[in-house]
Design goal:
The complex is a heterodimer of chains A (839) and B (554). With 839 residues, chain A is α+β, with helices and mostly antiparallel strands. In chain A, helix 13 crosses helix 15. The two termini of chain A are 47 Å apart. In chain B, the strands form three sheets. In chain B, strands 6, 7, 8, 9, 10 and 11 form a six-stranded antiparallel sheet that branches. In chain B, strands 4-3-2-1-5 form a five-stranded antiparallel sheet, with no helix packed on it. In chain B, strands 12-13 form a two-stranded antiparallel ribbon. In chain B, a hairpin with a 4-residue loop joins strand 12 and strand 13. Chain B starts with 8 loop residues before the first helix and ends with a helix. The chains are: A alpha+beta (839), B alpha+beta (554). At the A-B interface, helix 1, helix 4, helix 5, helix 6 and helix 7 of A face helix 1, helix 2, helix 7, helix 8 and helix 9 of B.
């Protein structure tokens, strides 16, 4: 028996603590998945290979598996070396009879164009050939290669990739025969876009001949031969006698614009709208600092952003952008990275992300994500000597750089370069945008699309949903709770409370579906009636109260128990009144057609009047309470109850008229001042909008707030009520002056818990909010919340990708938000309980 | 905590006859009452709307034939009538069906355009296996391509005579297709996995691999023969069924033959007695509750969704109750009260407020990706890279929801434990019982109704929750149930259908949303009924529990 006791104690203790710990793993797992987002990029396993030759280096490159490094020099020597040992695999001279005077490479280096001193241009590629060999077919020496190990076989690097298979990797160089260019003068500058036979290239010759050549592939139907045709477009001579020639030529991806840049920071943009019309030439500046000179210019991935490095080590990223919606796109410097002072010697872009690699004259390298500004690595390639060429491997997992007479290389793990606290929570200037902005756009149809992972629009959407639903839900829930606790008979209360509590268990998917398929179309069809109802509803209830007061005093007590049922009559009355007033409202306030009005048609006066009716009403009530009611109270001592009731009714009717008149007058005045309510809060109507979500989500939070608030009110000790009533206070005065102030903290915690519930609600917003991530308070527009975003995107996110981790971060934000809210509410609630016990 | 409101305000008020009207605050009381009235009206309106739409979905509606001013003749069920915005008159949504002929399921008709309308007594509503409904009048009946009926009435008679047997054959065929063919496929798949395993462990060319290869070839050959046999059986049934065709004429005079096997149900909508109406109504409910969905879930039944919801909820409660009770016992009976315990209690209360989607994210990251992939690598390596447990499934969904509902059970159990008077415990100790004996024999039995309440509340919460399930395994269509007659009977890794997710999918993702609408309402009605029923039971249990203990207090 003792043993059983001990065992049970242990099992329960371990199980109990284990359960509580298991629950805290929720938070830990989220952190664990999110954490890598914050990890810096890592460059490891540095190495150095020999690189003979003295001619200027044109380009260095590396293959997918980081097994081969190649280096092309201006004298045409192309050398391939093993990445591991540095052993020379092959070396050849491209176009031995010619002198290379210009060269151009695509990002990653695969597509190449070479320009020669005789004015001709050769297109080609420097790539890699990968083949797979089964063990059975391989040479005996190769069969002995251990798993994962590499060996050199001729010009190829061989690696075992499975117990039965080997992979052979070798350099693959192919060039077409050189073709005569626009002139026979040496090619000064060259750039090419696209790969293979398609695309285009641009050339500038030493005599000023300048042309863009478009390549088109045509397959001969009969022979199957593929012919490449070239369509040249001549551009004006960019050279000015006596002045230095331009230093760089950049051709856009589609081949319809070219940029020439001079060392002093001047630039010219040539825009080819179509083949027939003359090109537009536009002067641009690529330096904002006059004391500096341009030292390196290159495209970023996608060939839209120009990277311009200067003599002080600064790098600017420029792209065309419309600063205002109507202005033509102009080149603007969207990002600038200040350097350490040493001039930039080479810039290249990653072939898969918006990461740049820049080499400096002091032998150091920077790897940086352009959009997020995140510095991924700062490496030293050589202690002495400038970096001549640098490149990232095709998978961004390696860095190679030619500096100080050797090739330095690193294994590189970029981590999650596109996210940083700055990119997640601050406005970011994305390519082509007019300025820094908050954007969430995680995927798109095109390939070179950059994911925009700003969480602010989602957090904003979450708050917007919460605010609108609280605006609707909190008053109803609190008023209902106060009424239930203070003015309802215990018998009725025992029946009504469970019904409202039952509503808390209503699955939110049901509410979401009703919101999207029933309520949203209904509200869209009867918007004016709905807006009228918001104003008319309270007025009808007030009118009911004033009419109720007219009942002779004798009968009041007998009718007391019918008061609550009578209130239900106000609902059809309000609906009827709204139905009647809706068209009137639409006619007078919204110039006859509310949708048209919201879209910007008609005058603003009516809209102002509508918006101001409620504030005006409140103001009138406050003024009456402050200045009129005390006097009436004084005077009423001599009056009969019936007379009081009639005076009250008259007062009510009068204040109604005054409120409407004041609203109309102020609205008119505001309209005269040229102010328009359509803007931040009102705007174009979308069927799935915040009004609908606020209304339906109100449904979801009313039962929760109601239950907790009612519990808090019920916890106020009865002797307080009894004392108040015994001192002659009316039930209303008791509720207002004694019960509510005592229960205030409990009511507050009820609202907080409702807030927490609204923040995390998923299905309603997913189905009824339209899910567009915009930053706009417009009540007639949709939004996208953190929770809906997770529900939509997480099933499709690739595991452990940046997107996946960012969605986990969204979940973490949500978790923290609700946890903070709930903890506050809980602490307040416990305090309140203690206080209530003490009373 | 419950404090009865001071009764008898009325009496007191009688003594204050001279109190001014102005301090009674009647208008503000009405505003407060308004809050309650609005809340109640909203609840009633919502439930009424769902009940009305849900219960009326399956009522057979009459078929109207409408001739428009443009000379078009439409025949179909009138779904609803609505006012056009801007006072342009009414318009009707007519379900015209006959999708393969018209390309539309629904047509809006302006009331102003209608020149004639009647209800042909012979008009049939034909619910088909595919292509949605068909509306037409019977004109003939074909048996093996030859006309067998002289007139419409005889055609209808022949339809009634043959439909039953044809559908029986169709059901046999479907059983063969799903069950027998599935069994054969599984045999091949199993043999393939054995082969894969042999290749993986022994390498290609090893003796075990060669042997496995031979075995696989033998199984494959046997399976091919089996397939052949099943195929001929199916063809036989199809041939027998294809003989019977009903010829229908649409409103615009096109004649169309429909195979009897394709017809799920047909009835003359304008010529129904009350009894046959009720029969159709009940039969549709039967189909809804016990059949599988068809037509992209917009027709047929929701049985797999009901089954999936029930299984998931049961597994969830099997997991959550022991752990929840253990945690509550620890907190209430074993742990010494102090700052730590109250902090734990606060965080448990808080967890009830953590958004459900966060639990879904956790379930995906921890159960599906972390635990699932580990299990796959250990036990299902032959199947990789196809995940077995490394994706959403009913087990992971249940575990995720049990985390979500854990606070509910803990709080309810704690409340029940604290309601057991200490005098009982002390009495037990005084009789020489040990702590565990006291808990087992005295405390737990008395707390049982409370624990049951917690479990039922957790089940209600779990059954209605959708957001986390979207991430951990609920799918729009799962042909295989997580529990069936195929060994090993329990398939905890399978994705499943869920009533709540079904509502989301039908209401939000469906292409033919107008046709899916009635189905959403009935599914909603079903889900609400289940959730509310569970809740009402829980509330009843709780009240009974409270009452019992009040009388038991010393």
């Amino acid at each position: 028996m003792r043993a059983l006791d001990v065992v049970s104690r242990w099992v329960i203790t371990v199980g109990g603590i284990g359960t509580v710990v298991a629950v805290s793993t929720v938070f830990l797992l989220l952190l664990w998945v999110v954490f890598p987002l914050l990890l810096p990029a890592r460059a490891s396993r540095p190495g150095r290979l020999a690189a003979e030759g003295v001619a200027r280096a044109l380009r260095v490159g590396v293959d997918d598996y980081r097994s081969i490094v190649w280096l092309l020099r201006a004298d045409g020597t192309l050398a391939a070396r093993s990445f591991d040992s540095g052993a020379l695999l092959e070396q050849r001279r491209l176009f031995p009879g010619r002198t290379i005077s210009a060269a151009a490479f695509s990002a990653g280096g695969t597509a190449v164009a070479l320009g020669f001193a005789d004015g001709s241009v050769a297109l080609g590629s420097i790539g890699f050939r990968t083949s797979f060999v089964d063990d059975d077919a391989a040479a005996p020496a190769l069969r002995r290669i251990a798993a994962g190990a590499r060996a050199i076989e001729g010009a190829a690097v061989v690696q075992r990739i499975s117990p039965t298979q080997l992979r052979l990797q070798q350099l693959d160089v192919a060039f077409e025969e050189p073709v005569a260019g626009a002139s026979t003068a040496p090619v000064l500058l060259l750039d090419r876009s696209g790969a293979g036979d398609a695309g285009s290239y641009a050339e500038v010759h030493a005599d000023g001949a300048f042309q863009i050549v478009r390549l088109t592939r045509r397959e001969n139907m009969l022979t199957g031969e593929i012919a490449t045709s070239r369509t040249p477009t001549a551009l004006p001579n960019p050279l000015t006698p006596g002045e230095p020639a331009p230093g760089w030529l950049l051709l856009s991806d589609s081949g319809d614009s070219a940029l020439l840049a001079w060392k002093d920071g001047r630039g010219s943009r040539y825009l080819l709208r179509d083949a027939a019309s003359a090109p537009v030439v536009e002067a641009v500046a690529l330096l904002e600092d006059r004391g500096r000179a341009l030292t390196a210019v290159s495209w970023l991935l996608g060939r839209t952003t120009v990277l311009a490095g200067d003599s002080a080590g600064g790098i600017g990223a420029w792209f065309p952008s419309r600063l205002t919606p109507d202005s033509p796109p102009l080149l603007v410097r969207a990002h600038f990275f200040e350097g350490a002072g040493s001039p930039v010697t080479t810039i290249d872009s990653s072939s898969r992300s918006r990461v740049l690699i820049a080499g400096f004259a002091d032998g150091t390298l920077d790897v940086r994500h352009v959009t997020s500004h995140k510095l991924l690595a700062h490496l030293t390639a050589a202690a002495v000597g400038a970096v001549e060429a640098a490149a990232l491997s095709p998978k961004d997992d390696g860095v190679v750089a030619l500096a100080g007479g050797g090739i330095a290389h690193w294994a590189f793990d970029p981590g999650h370069p596109e996210t940083s606290p700055r990119a997640l929570f601050l406005p970011i200037w994305y390519e082509g945008a007019p300025g820094p902005e908050h954007v969430w756009q995680s995927s798109a149809a095109t390939d070179d699309f950059e994911p925009k992972l700003g969480l602010i629009p989602l957090i904003f959407g979450t708050l917007k949903a919460t605010v609108y639903s609280l605006v609707f839900g909190v008053p109803i829930a609190l008023l209902a709770a106060i009424f239930t606790s203070e003015f309802l008979s215990p018998r009725l209360r025992g029946k009504i409370k469970p019904v409202v509590e039952l509503m808390a268990s209503l699955p939110s998917v049901v509410l979401g579906f009703l919101a999207a398929l029933v309520i949203a179309p209904f509200v869209a069809a009867r918007l004016a009636d709905f807006l009228a109802l918001i104003i008319v509803g309270p007025v009808v209830f007030l009118a009911g109260a004033y009419l109720w007061q007219l009942i002779p005093y004798r009968l009041t007590l007998r009718f007391e128990r019918w008061r609550f049922p009578a209130m239900f009559l106000a609902i059809p009355a309000a609906l009827l009144a709204a139905r009647t007033l809706g068209p009137v409202l639409e006619r007078f306030c919204f110039s006859g057609d509310i949708m048209h009005w919201l879209a910007g048609g008609g005058g603003p006066a009516g809209g102002w009047a509508y918006l101001l009716v409620a504030p005006a009403g409140l103001a009138v009530i406050l003024l009456l309470a402050r200045f009129v009611n005390p006097r009436l109270n004084e005077a009423s001592r001599r009056w009969t109850r019936a007379r009081c009731a009639w005076i009250e009714l008259g007062k009510f009717a009068g204040s109604l008229v005054v409120a409407v008149a004041v609203a109309a007058a102020v609205g008119g005045a505001l309209a005269l001042l040229g102010l328009d309510p359509r803007g931040p809060l009102l705007g174009t109507y979308v069927q799935r909008n915040s009004l609908v979500v606020g209304f339906v989500m109100g449904f979801a939070i009313i039962p929760i707030i109601y239950t907790i608030a009612e519990d808090a009110l019920a916890a106020v000790p009865d002797h307080l009520r009894s004392a108040s009533l015994a001192s002659g206070a009316t039930p209303w005065q008791t509720a207002w002056r004694i019960v509510i102030p005592t229960a205030m903290s409990g009511l507050f915690s009820a609202v907080m818990i409702g807030f927490g519930r609204a923040v995390g609600e998923t299905m309603i917003v997913l189905m009824a909010a339209g899910n567009t991530p915009i930053l706009e308070w417009n009540i007639f527009n949709g939004f996208r919340t953190l929770s809906a975003n997770i529900a939509v995107e997480l099933p499709e996110a690739v595991r452990n990708s940046t997107h996946y981790r960012t969605l986990f971060l969204a979940a973490l934000v949500l978790f923290v938000m609700t946890f903070v809210l709930n903890t506050c509410a809980e602490i307040v609630r416990i305090r309140f309980r203690k206080k209530a016990m003490e009373l | 905590m419950t404090a009865p409101a001071p009764a008898g305000f009325g009496h007191r008020r009688r003594e204050r006859t001279r109190a001014s009207l102005f301090v009674q605050g009647e208008p503000l009381i009405w505003i407060m009452g308004g809050g309650l009235v609005i809340a109640i009206a909203m609840i009633a309106g919502l439930l009424g709307l769902i009940a009305d739409a849900g219960f009326s979905t399956f009522v057979p509606r009459p078929v109207a034939r409408i001739r428009t001013a443009a000379g078009k003749v439409l025949m179909g069920e009138i779904e609803r009538t609505e006012e056009r915005p801007g006072g342009a008159g009414g318009r009707r949504l007519v379900r015209v069906g006959n999708f393969e002929l018209t390309g539309e399921h629904f047509v809006w008709v302006d009331e102003a355009q209608i020149v004639a309308e009647d209800r042909p007594s012979r008009a049939l509503v034909v619910e088909r296996q595919e292509w949605g409904r068909f509306y037409g009048e019977p004109v003939g009946f074909l048996i093996a391509g030859a006309p067998a009926a002289a007139g419409p009435d005889e055609a209808w008679r022949l339809y009634l005579k043959h439909h039953g047997e044809v559908r029986d054959r169709w059901n046999v065929r479907r059983r063969i297709e799903t069950k027998d063919v599935g069994a054969v496929n599984r045999r091949v798949e199993r043999a393939r996995l054995v082969l894969r395993d042999a290749e993986r462990t022994g390498g290609t060319g090893s003796a075990t691999h060669e042997a496995a290869k031979l075995r696989f070839a033998a199984v494959e050959a046997g399976v091919m023969r089996e397939f052949e046999r099943l195929r001929s059986e199916i063809q036989e049934l199809n041939k027998a069924n294809r003989k019977y065709q009903l010829v229908l004429r649409t409103a615009d005079g096109i004649e169309k033959e429909i195979a009897l096997a394709e017809i799920v149900r047909a009835y003359p909508a304008n010529d129904l007695s009350f009894a046959s109406r009720s029969r159709i109504y009940l039969d549709r409910w039967r189909e809804f509750l016990f059949d599988e969905p068809r037509e992209a879930n917009s027709e047929g039944g929701v049985f797999p969704a009901i089954f999936g919801t029930v299984i998931m909820t049961l597994v969830m409660s099997v997991v959550v109750v022991p752990f929840g009770v253990m945690a509550a016992l620890y907190l209430r009976e074993y742990a010494r009260s102090g700052a730590v315990v109250s902090a734990v209690r606060i965080s448990i209360n808080n967890l009830a407020g953590v958004p459900s989607i966060v639990f879904g994210v956790f379930g995906l990251g921890f159960f599906c990706y972390f635990m699932g992939t580990s299990i796959d690598q250990l036990f299902f390596a032959a199947n990789l890279p196809n995940p077995t447990f490394g994706k959403g499934g009913v087990l992971w969904a249940s575990l995720t929801l049990s985390l979500l509902t854990l606070p509910v059970v803990i709080v309810a159990t704690e409340e029940a434990l604290s309601a057991v008077p200490n005098s009982l415990r002390e009495g037990s100790y005084a009789c020489g019982a040990s702590k565990w004996q006291t808990i087992r024999r005295i405390v737990l039995p008395r707390a049982m109704p409370g624990i049951m309440t917690g479990m039922i509340l957790a089940m209600a919460r779990g059954a209605g929750e959708v957001a986390p399930l979207m991430l951990v395994g609920a799918v729009k269509l799962a042909p295989e149930l997580p529990l069936d007659t195929i060994p090993p009977f329990v398939h905890a890794q399978r994705s499943f259908m869920h009533l709540g997710f079904h509502i989301y999918d039908l209401g939000f993702q469906s292409q033919n949303s107008e046709a899916a609408k009635p189905m959403v309402f009935t599914t909603t009605l079903l889900l609400i009924a289940v959730v509310f029923l569970l809740n009402v039971i829980a509330v009843r249990l709780r009240t009974r529990l409270r009452r019992r203990f009040e009388s038991e207090k010393f």
